[in-house]
Amino acid sequence: MQNIKEQIRKGYQELTTRQKTVAKFVIGQPKTIALHSAQKIGELTETSETTVIRFCYALGYSGYSALQTEIRESLLNSDEEEGPLKNYRDTTGELIGENNLIQRVMEQDVAFIQQTLSSINNELFTKAVDLIIQAKKIVVVGFRTSYSLANWTSLTLNLIRGDTSLYRGPIDDADSIIMEMDEHWLVIAFSFPRYASETISFVQAAKTKGVKVLGISDDELSPIGLEANVLLKAITPQPSALNGMAAIFSLLKALTTGVAAADWPKVQDRVRTYDGQSGFEFHIPTTESWG
Predict the structure, then answer these.
(1) DSSP codes, 17-83
(2) Taking 80 as the threshold, does the pLDDT of residue 279 lie above it?
(3) Which residues form the domain of 198?
(4) Residue 230 pLDDT > 80, yes or no?
(5) Are residues 67 and 126 in the same domain?
(6) Are residues 130 and 210 in the same domain?
(7) Is the whole-model pTM more than 0.70?
(8) Residue 182 and residue 141: Cα distance in Å, rounded?
(9) In what order do the strands lie in the sheet with 137-141?
């Protein structure tokens, strides 16, 4: 399904309103697509058989049967397992009284990490790593619940490759930053519910300068998903800020490790230099030292 989702994400803005309804249905209900005719899908989406077929054409398929065949093959060959999520409990309240709370919580985290892993193929992950490696400069952006993710990512990438900064909203001069950008820059944008409009505005402004965008979000059709050149999807329970951080940080750890592994000797040198500098002592002059 990853290839189909990526095609929908890239072409979503060009779809009609009714075709967008079909697109969301395809992403959310692939098994239903595999089992039913275009006429039935038209009824289920409250559109029409014609809309469903035109949606297929818009994605580059020869017709509905071609899309259906690809979805069927994808589902048959999928390594995704629903099992890890079957025991997930939707609310923290349901965990009250658990004799082994830590085990239950960590099992849930592992389940969503596994789901995130199965949703990202190696080709897509490699594209994301290559974007970071090839970028001249990187700006990381994320607000509200995504700020901690953006902050950690900017610090880590700046350590292992340099030329990475965190956009801090009103504290920074957005116009000045964007003015310096060109097609060799990369914006890494985090956006999870509720999606911060500030993130989208910054990304849209940056794209006018030819900047590439690596999006990290929970949905291919999220606001940042529609703007990104490459999107990495983290599957998390809601709200992400409270329940989903383990899966997101696991994804970020894999991403930064992939960047480091691409030029490990250079990264080692940077880390050694950083360790040496971090041992320096800085003293604030006292009034006595002013003499």
Answers:
(1) HHHHHHHHHHHH-HHHHHHS-HHHHHHHTTS-HHHHHHHHHHTT-SSHHHHHHHHHHHHHH----SH
(2) no
(3) 119-268
(4) yes
(5) no
(6) yes
(7) no
(8) 17
(9) 164-166, 137-141, 185-191, 212-217, 230-233
